[in-house]
Amino acid sequence: MHEQTSATPADSPSIEGPTLFDWEFATDPYPAYAWLREHSPVHRTKLPSGVEAWLVTRYADARQALADQRLSKNPAHHAEPAHAKGKTGIPGERKAELMTHLLNIDPPDHTRLRRLVSKAFTPRRVAEFTPRVQELTDHLIDAFAAKGEADLIHEFAFPLPIYAICEMLGVPREDQDDFRDWAGMMIRHGGGPRGGVARSVKQMRTYLGELIHRKRDDLGNDLISDLIRASDHGDHLTEAEATAMAFILLFAGFETTVNLIGNGVHSLFMNPEQRERLQASLAAGESGLLETGVEELLRYDGPVELATWRFATVPLTLGGQEIAAGDPVLVVLAAADRDPERFADPDTLDLSRGDNQHLGYGHGIHYCLGAPLARLEGQTALATLLTRLPDLELAIPPTDLRWRGGLIMRGLRTLPVRFTPRNN
Question: How far apart, in whole angstroms, are the C-alpha atoms of residue 263 and residue 281?
């Protein structure tokens, strides 16, 4: 990612702020976000793509923006569609005809689609999947436990959600490695050229379309079959809508969980006293600290740094700042979740933190539909790792870790660890 300095609109006083979006910022963006919260909480900047957007960094403003229906999710409301073509949203989704998913639409279309999808992607279905998530978690750990070392991103945090969502969707076992390859392309190129991601998106879209077409004649007990069955007063998802929804459930569901696990383990390494508390709690057979702990890890260094794109449909005021119709607005979840006006000692990791209404899964009508599955995977992964590999430790100096570039997600490229080899 190219180094990019912050900028302000021509009609605003010049504000000399921190450098944004370079590699130093990617390693630890929190000091820059603290400066923005205090000095320029709704801040105009030029992104590495060249698109100018507003960054919203205070909790109260962020929560307001996430629920404000004057901020549209539909890219058609961008004031400069030609300039921004291909520079907002998921690379390749427009060419692959995948625009009709929940991250790109507003009510009433959003209301209709979310209601239909919610009939398929239920908390009950996630709860029924709990034993399988545990099996997948143990299987992945079994593959490296005897070595005494691993890269927790590529050998554990990355494949777990890919295989989990593939199984929930009903992707046959023999095809799941293809999804792992396509998803790997997204991870590798998320902060660089968008062409590699676009190619993977096209391949996923082609495969999912064919799979949905086949399943219409042979419905099973899986999420894609439930999407096809879902109806409301005679209204069904079209094949294009079902394909787009299956795609976004996979696309939005895997990298967030990769980062939840990777960032979570990293945060525990950096806060050994909190890790010891959690391991003692797990050893005692308790689950309360694990549950509050995962919420705190989401707040402290969560997987989604900025919420996905929004566009002002009318002139509006946010955090005292005038925003013109058509302007892009990016809510900085990572900044809002460390706002001292909302969270006591926000830069301190406290796994038992109460009243933790973080914004890691968003807020309002676009609150993450997959949050229950992500919580299940995060809790299962962390509990199993810390129980089966209790002396797990970072294998390189923390300063040698590298974070993936990118605008929306926050995650590590690799997480090398070592531990006492185990054969169980």
Answer: 20
Q: How confident is the model at residue 226 (pLDDT cuts 50, 70, 90)?
A: confident
Give the chain's mean pLDDT.
87
44 phi, psi to nearest 5 deg:
-85, 130
Q: For residue 137, what pLDDT band results from cuts at 50, 70 and 90?
A: very high
List helix spans (H) across 68-103: 81-84
CA torsion sign for 208, 244, 194, 94 is: positive
Burial class (CB within 10 angstroms; exposed 0-12, middle 13-18, buried 19+) of 392: buried
Closest among 393, 398, 421, 376 to 130, alpha carbons compared = 376
Question: How high is the pLDDT of residue 125?
Answer: 86
Residue 344 three-state SS: coil
Pick 224 or 267 by higher pLDDT: 267
Of 232-241, 246-255, 354-363, the least confident: 232-241
- pLDDT tens, position by position, 167-205: 998 999 999 988 888 888 776 655 444 556 778 888 888
Q: Is the dihedral of CA 252, 197, 403, 327 positive or negative?
A: negative
User: CA-CA distance, 74 to 100, in Å (whole number)?
Assistant: 10
Give the number of residues written for the chain: 424
- Dig out the tokens for 322 from the structure: 């005038």
Q: How far apart are CA 314 and CA 332, in angstroms?
A: 21
CB of 200 closer than 8 Å to CB of 183: yes
Judged by DSSP in three states, 304 sits in strand
| Structure-token pair, residue 22 | 């370079």
Cβ atoms 379, 128 nearer than 8 A: no
Residue 89 C-alpha from the chain's centroid: 13
Q: What is the pLDDT of residues 202-212, one digit of tens each?
A: 888 888 889 99
The most distant pair of C-alpha atoms in the chain lies apart, rounded to whole Å, by 65
List the Cα angle 318/320/321 in 5-degree steps: 70
pLDDT at 91: 60
What single-letter amino acid sits at 387?
A: T
Write phi, then psi, for 305 (nearest 5 degrees). -80, -45
pTM of the model: 0.90
Of 330, 249, 248, 363, which Cα lies nearest the Cα of 78?
330
Distance from C-alpha of 276 to C-alpha of 155, rounded to nearest angstrom: 24
